[in-house]
Amino acid sequence: MSKSLGTLLQLLRKEHKIKQKTLSKGICSVATLSRIEAGEREPDYLLFDALFTRMGKDSRKWEFILKENDKYLLRKRNYIEYLLQVKRWEETEREIETYTDFMEVSKNLHEQYHCMIEGILYYKRGNRKKALEKYIEALQKTNLEVDVHALQIESILSRNELRILCLIGQVLSEEEEMSIESLYHYWKELLQYIEKYCTDEWYRMRFHVKTIYYLAYTLYRQENYMESFSYCKKGIDILVEKMSLYYLKSFLHLLENLKEKGINFTVGGIVWSDKIPFLIHILEEWELENQRFQEKENYIRPYQSIYSINEIIKNTRSYCGKTQEDFMETKDGKKLIVDQAGMSQIEHGKREPRKEIIQHCFKTLGLQGKEERYQLQIQGEDFEIQELKWNIDFYISVHKKEKAKELYKILKEKIDIYDIYNEQYVRHIDVLLKDSKSDMSDEEYRKEIFDILALTVKDIDKIRTKEWSYFFTIEELVLLMNIGGSYHKSGNYREALHWYQKLERYFQNFYKLAGTRIYKSLLYNLSQVYGLIGEYKNSIKKSKACIFTEMLYSQGHSMCRIIYNIGWCYGKMMLEAKSEDKKEEYKKNCDKYFLQSSYIAEFYKDENVKKAIKQKRKLWKI
């Protein structure tokens, strides 16, 4: 499906002029790295992530097919991160205690993660000294020695190493022992590293924003208010461009403090100083709402898509109507590739199949080309095309088609159009970026989407009738959602709901770690179509699930639109209510959510939402 992991790793390493010894230091041997680059060995997820992030690239651009233990650990880490975010310290402690029971390979990386989480727990409980000790111990697990009082970064850093240095900076920022000047130097050194070495802008963003915030905070403590404001403005500009919530509340609180020093904050020519308290209130209200949210287990999943080999084989075999006996073919007329007992062990995650067996099983199931453990959605000679694709998808999702078209033109010149996965993506984007579908009926549009899907999915007619336990890539899932979307846009809401619900069952019943990235879009579409068929409570419920997911990953891509949908539902309930008391209750809720939506839309410059709210207020006399 994509250029091999080892080939891409080697290309990136040589492009960045990084020696094998430098890249592998403290995380694996040079011999192991050589075998990975030669395609003779596949790393576990943590080693994969460390190698790629040391080159400043984001692992979220990949889909992962992992062995069961690696998938289990990744799911566990994802849950630990959630528990930390919602301040459930005792549960975090229990999870991290059992984490060590399953560490097999890349032990030093697992131990580093374990130490880091222990440090965070000490910090959250107020023991900063012990937290600092744990963070330094964590860095030593990968042979990284630093002088925290005079930071000088002389190594390339993985995601966790960079994260630990930021966590150390947080502790130092709250300690009185370190001078403001030394603290400023610490964060400035981190910022310079991030801007130089984190070349993937989506990978860079979180570290970048956090470092900028702490520089702004340090300068504020230094009473250098104008420079503090300058860094605040830089951070906010990044958040607005990427529609992110990351550290937004911290920036807003700092801007409140700067306001007391006579400095006003503007976005797009609008003075925000008087609006900041309400923005903070909105964020805090939704944080509280998320704590009350009841069905969290379906939504606490990695951002990227994670699958295990056993679940793909088991689920797809059932979907295709095959038995375990169908896999028992001979090799060279002599022996079975896999017997029934072996297949049962594989499907239940009790046996790790060899690559030869995986390829045989995937071929039997019509999944040829999808068997690589680490897969990119499109193929090319450099990693820049993955970054281009990520940005194109982002700009389409936030309705900035002109920007997407500009990047898409560059992408098409860089990829091999004859690769079927590249062809699938290009044909899909061609459809999405058309200025109008007026020359194509809804039926013709759906036929085009099915034709694009058929490039990589066998027995396409089954999709119309069966539950989907087949293994779909992210791009294939997006195409399936677009089919539901075509019914949605044409007003056939019941049929749209049918397609969306099939996708929802795919995520909830078959592939529980299929990524949040696409699942979040599905939740938003479900919230809309439930509202349009008059199921307002279901619509509000899905909207809240979508906001929970957005805030879990500190994203604001769709937040104003989701909150607008909640306000719209209350407006429709107001119009349909029989009693005056209910009408008044629903009117107040409609006004509340429209107000929240308009503030967020104004902040992120979403003119379409602002216009929709204005129209509905006028129409409904709110």
Automatic annotation (TrEMBL):
**Residue ranges constituting the HTH cro/C1-type domain according to the UniProt record:** 9-62
Q: InterPro entries attached here?
A: Cro/C1-type_HTH, Lambda_DNA-bd_dom_sf, TPR-like_helical_dom_sf, TPR_rpt
Q: What is this protein identified as?
A: Transcriptional regulator
Taken from the record, one Pfam family name reads: HTH_3
Q: Which GO terms describe its molecular function?
A: DNA binding
Task: Name the source's superkingdom.
Answer: Bacteria
